[in-house]
């Protein structure tokens, strides 16, 4: 028996079985009577059984039709429930905003403050946080796994994204306490040009170059001491003496846990921490509301 039967075929069958009249069933289904008759004949051929007895007295279910009817009703009911479950899942997805980050935006309680403002404006919506490694400088925006993300500029393919600045911070140099320059109160970047640097993975693209301060090296390539993809790796590499690295002032507490210090560095510009989103999503209500909450929090 060929079992390639669609829910539509079963719906047509149930309508005829309940009406026992092709014209009334066709009207119920918004079909023409000939089209409905053709669909029923096709279903009978697929099943290899006559479902209705048609004669001048009217239409009646055959034994095969009577056997199929309760099962067809159950299949259609299950399909209706399944379709409703899909719609519910879609609605839940629309009311859940996924927030990506590669470094926690701990700055002055920023994250809970934004969540509070956003929640007050949209109490029906939920936020879900997603932590990523530094291998993805967009923190999930590029592959669509998050809706908004706290990230550092510059972003790869910047034209794809919009953003609002969360913090503008000086870049400090992080180095082991035992480093000869650690005793200084400030350091010129030119004094660091020959130091081995900790570098983001190559997948970080322009962000890797930015934290290596290529713009301040006058064309001289950096020495790479090790690659890092997270805060813990950075701290361990610094303690091991594998290199030094630039770090945002707001992130300095994450790595100065003992044995590591940070110092102001002259000759490099400030860095920018932003909340970013895909431009194609900037008119989505929850994305816009979260960005507004972020702007209000920063302004406040």
Written account of the structure:
This protein has 300 residues and is of the alpha/beta class. The mean pLDDT is 91. Helix 1 crosses helix 2, helix 2 (22-29) packs across helix 3 and helix 5 (110-121) crosses helix 9. The protein has helices spanning 7-19, 22-29, 33-47, 63-94, 110-121, 206-211, 231-239, 252-255, 285-299; strands at 52-55, 58-61, 96-101, 126-131, 148-152, 161-169, 171-176, 187-188, 196-199, 223-227, 245-248, 260-266, 271-278. The protein has a five-stranded mixed beta sheet. Strands 8-12-7-11 form a four-stranded mixed beta sheet, with helices on one face. It has a two-stranded antiparallel sheet with strand order 1-2. The radius of gyration is 32 Å and the shape is elongated.
Chain-wise SSE layout:
Layout: H1 7-19, H2 22-29, H3 33-47, E1 52-55, E2 58-61, H4 63-94, E3 96-101, H5 110-121, E4 126-131, E5 148-152, E6 161-169, E7 171-176, E8 187-188, E9 196-199, H6 206-211, E10 223-227, H7 231-239, E11 245-248, H8 252-255, E12 260-266, E13 271-278, H9 285-299
Parallel strand pairs: 3-4, 3-5, 8-12, 9-10
Antiparallel strand pairs: 1-2, 5-13, 6-13, 7-11, 7-12
């Amino acid at each position: 028996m060929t079992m390639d039967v669609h829910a539509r075929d079963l719906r047509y069958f149930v309508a005829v079985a309940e009406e026992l009249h092709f014209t009334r069933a066709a009207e119920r289904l918004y079909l023409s009577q000939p089209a409905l008759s053709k669909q029923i004949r096709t279903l009978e051929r697929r099943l290899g059984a006559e479902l209705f007895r048609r004669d001048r007295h009217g239409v009646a279910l055959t034994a095969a039709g009577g056997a199929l009817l309760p099962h067809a009703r159950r299949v259609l009911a299950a399909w209706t429930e399944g379709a409703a479950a899909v719609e519910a899942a879609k609605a839940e997805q629309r009311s859940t905003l996924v927030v990506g980050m590669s470094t926690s935006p701990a700055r002055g309680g920023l994250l809970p403050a934004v969540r509070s403002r956003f929640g007050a404006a949209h109490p029906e919506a939920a936020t879900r946080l997603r932590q990523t490694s530094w291998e993805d400088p967009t923190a999930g925006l590029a592959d669509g796994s998050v809706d908004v993300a706290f990230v550092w500029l510059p972003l790869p393919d910047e034209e794809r994204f919009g953003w609002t600045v969360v913090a503008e911070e000086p870049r400090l140099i992080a180095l082991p306490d035992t480093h000869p320059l650690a005793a200084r109160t400030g350091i010129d970047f030119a004094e660091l040009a020959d130091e081995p640097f900790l570098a983001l993975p190559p997948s970080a693209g322009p962000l890797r170059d930015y934290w290596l301060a290529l713009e301040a090296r006058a064309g001289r390539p950096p020495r790479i001491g090790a690659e890092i993809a997270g805060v813990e790796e950075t701290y361990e590499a610094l303690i091991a003496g594998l290199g030094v690295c630039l770090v945002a002032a707001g992130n300095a507490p994450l790595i100065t846990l003992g044995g590591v210090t940070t110092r102001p560095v002259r000759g490099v510009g400030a860095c920018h921490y932003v909340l970013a989103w895909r431009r194609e999503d900037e008119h989505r209500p929850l994305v816009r509301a979260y960005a507004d909450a972020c702007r209000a929090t920063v302004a406040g």
